[in-house]
Amino acid sequence: MDMPSLRIGSRTARLPVIQGGMAVRISLSPLATAVANAGGVGIIAGSGLSVREIAAEVRQARAATEGVIGVNVMVAVRIFKDLVQAAIAEGADIVIAGAGFSRDVFTWCKEAGVECVPVVGSARVAKLAERFGASAVVVEGVEAGGHLGTDRLALDLLPEILEAVDIPVILAGGVVTGADIKRALDAGAAGVQMGTRFAATVESSASDAFKAMYVAATDEDVVITKSPVGLPGRAVTNPLTERLARGDYPDIERCRSCLKECGKEYCIIDALERAQRGDVIEGLVFAGSSVARVHDVPTVDVLMARLVEEWREASEGTQA
Ligand SMILES: Cc1cc2nc3c(=O)[nH]c(=O)nc-3n(C[C@H](O)[C@H](O)[C@H](O)COP(=O)(O)O)c2cc1C
C-alpha cells in the first residue's frame, strides 16, 4: 500500500507531507531541497530574510531539485510583497502565507502560475481564501510551533474547514509520526504540514544547540510566550521565556522595522536569530507541543522513510 500523493493546484508531491516554513533561517534551501527530493513539499522560510537572501535560497533549491518547493512568508512582514515576488521570480512552486491575510498575494501568484496556500485558523477565513483563489489551505492548530492564530486543536478545527471549502485542506500541528499522518488523512486532510519534527533533522539550518534542546525537551518544557507580532508563540522554556513571562524584556539593540505592526516589547527577529545561531539562553526556541516526542536528529531521507513505514504499519493495523 502506498501513501497517497498530495495535489496542490497543478503541482503534485509524491508524499502528503509539507515541511513547514520555519523562520528565522531554520528552513532554508538545504532542508527544503532534501524534503522535495524525498517526495514531500520543501518550504523555505522567508520571514527575516532580505530580498536578496530569499532569491538566493529559492535559486539554490530550484537548481537542486525537480520536486515541489515553496516559500512561507508572514503577511505581517513589512517587505512581504518583495519577498513573495522574489521567490516567484526564482521559480517557487508554492507560496504559503502565514500570520495574517493578504488579498494581493492571490493576484501575484495567479499571474505567475504559482499556487497560493494561506494558513488559516477558522472556517470563515478558509472560505475567504477559497473565494480569492487559494489552491489549498493549511489549517494550523494550537499544538503548532511558532506564532499561533488559534486556541483550538488542529483535529477539532479540521471538520468545519472541510465543510466550508472544496479545495485541499492540509493539517498542521502536532504531527510527528506516520501514525499521526494517518490520523490526519483519515479525518479528511489531504496532507499534513510538519514543522517541529523537521527542525530537528540534519539538513535543518538550526544550530546543534537548538536541535539538542528539542531532543532533551519534555512536555513540561513547552510554554506559550508573548511575541511583539501580536500573537502568542509556542517555544521551549529557557531563561529568555522566563524573562518574558515576568515582563522583563531584552532591550532592542537595533530596530530594523521588519514588521508592519510591532508591539516593540523586544525584537522577535533578534531573539529567533540568536537561537538559530546557537544562543539557546537568550534566544527564542520556537517549538510545537509535540517536541517531547522528538528523540533524535535524523537525515531527511531517514525521517521520510520512517514516516512512510509508520504510516504503513498504522494502516495495516487498522485493516487487520
Ligand atoms: C521553529 C519554528 C519556526 C516557525 N516559523 C514559522 C514561520 O516563519 N511562518 C509560519 O507560517 N509558520 C512557522 N512555523 C509553523 C510551521 O510552519 C508549522 O505549521 C508548524 O510547526 C506545525 O506544527 P508542529 O510544529 O507541531 O509540526 C514555525 C514552527 C517552528 C517549530
CATH topology of the largest domain: TIM Barrel
Q: Give the name of the CATH superfamily of the largest domain.
A: Aldolase class I
Overall 3D shape: globular
Distance between the terminal alpha carbons, to the nearest Å? Answer: 14 Å
In a nutshell, what does this entry contain?
This protein is of the alpha/beta class. It is built from 12 helices and 13 strands.
Topology:
Elements (H helix, E strand, L loop, with lengths): L5 E3 L2 E3 L3 E3 L9 H9 L3 E5 L5 H14 L3 E7 L5 H10 L4 E5 L5 H9 L2 E6 L2 H10 L4 E4 L5 E2 L6 H11 L4 E4 L5 H9 L4 E4 L1 H4 L8 H9 L5 E5 L5 E5 L2 H7 L22 H10 L22 H20 L1
Parallel strand pairs: 3-11, 4-5, 5-6, 6-7, 7-8, 8-10, 10-11
Antiparallel strand pairs: 1-2, 9-13, 12-13
The structure holds flavin mononucleotide.
Flavin mononucleotide binds next to strand 5, strand 11 and helix 8.
Structure description:
Helix 1 packs parallel to helix 2. The relative contact order is 0.14. 38% of the residues lie in helices and 18% in strands. The chain is α/β, with parallel strands linked by helices and 320 residues long. The longest helix is centred in the C-terminal third of the chain and has 20 residues, at 300-319. It is globular. It has 2 domains: 7-205 and 295-315, TIM Barrel; 208-291, no CATH class. The chain has helices at 29-37, 51-64, 80-89, 104-112, 123-132, 154-164, 178-186, 196-199, 208-216, 239-245, 268-277, 300-319; strands spanning 6-8, 11-13, 17-19, 41-45, 68-74, 94-98, 115-120, 137-140, 146-147, 169-172, 191-194, 222-226, 232-236. The chain has an 8-stranded parallel β-sheet. Bound molecules: flavin mononucleotide (FMN). Flavin mononucleotide is lined by residues 20-23, 26, 45, 47, 72, 74, 98-99, 119, 140, 143-146, 172-175, 193-197, 199, 286-288, 290.
